[in-house]
Amino acid sequence: GGCGVPRLPLTAPPLSSLLGDREAGEMGLAAVPGRQAAFREGLAAAVQYARAVGCPRLHLVAGRVPLGADRAAVAGEMETTFIENLKYAADLLAQEDMIGLVEPINNRITDPRYFLNTPHQAASILEKVGRPNLKLQLDLFHCQIMDGNLSRNLETYFPLIGHIQIAQVPGRHEPDSPGELNFPYIFELLESLNYTGYVGCEYAPKGDTLEGLGWLRSYWESRGLQHSGTGKAAE
Predict the structure, then answer these.
(1) Which of 215, 208, 123 is nearest to 166 (CA)?
(2) Xylose isomerase-like TIM barrel domain: which residues (predicted)?
(3) What share of the chain in percent tops pLDDT 70?
(4) Which fold has domain 10-223?
(5) 180 tagged catalytic
(6) CA separation for the pair 86, 58 (Å, rounded)
């Protein structure tokens, strides 16, 4: 407690509470009808952890269409639940000066039952929620699989973006591994849009993690930047 960070109670539930009951097949709770109380409990725990480690952004994981349910039949109720939970979360996070993020996850490869799967759906929901401290977590891997059109999507949804994640498609490895995406172009596009947030490396390294960061060193060199090993250079 000497660093001024509040101690966490020993009984605090794990941060994965925002993901729900993984053993029961849950992947998030924010849009799942009937799980509002569990969502609020998980959010409270996540805020405690985020406060302790100085993390200003939390991914509010939407969740899956219930097993056996038809997506179209439950979509309305799930969106209503999602909007109510997001409003609650936004008000709570505003007190902590934190930002809530929603991330579309593709349902073609990664998670067939995930509720939130395109940036268009996310933007529509964020508009209905209407809270400035809720943003879009845009994972370009998922976006490419669902829609492609990355340049236009980045430009269109740029005002909503609070965090960006990257991985090559379809292997979900390093940005310079074989695949569909031209990441040097995408990075320059983000620079031209004056993106100042973080780019999360949401990929599985093909081998050694440090060796796998060669793509970043190459990009720095192509932009005339010196590799300093500091976080500032990575931004």
Answers:
(1) 215
(2) 20-218
(3) 89
(4) TIM Barrel (3.20.20)
(5) no
(6) 12
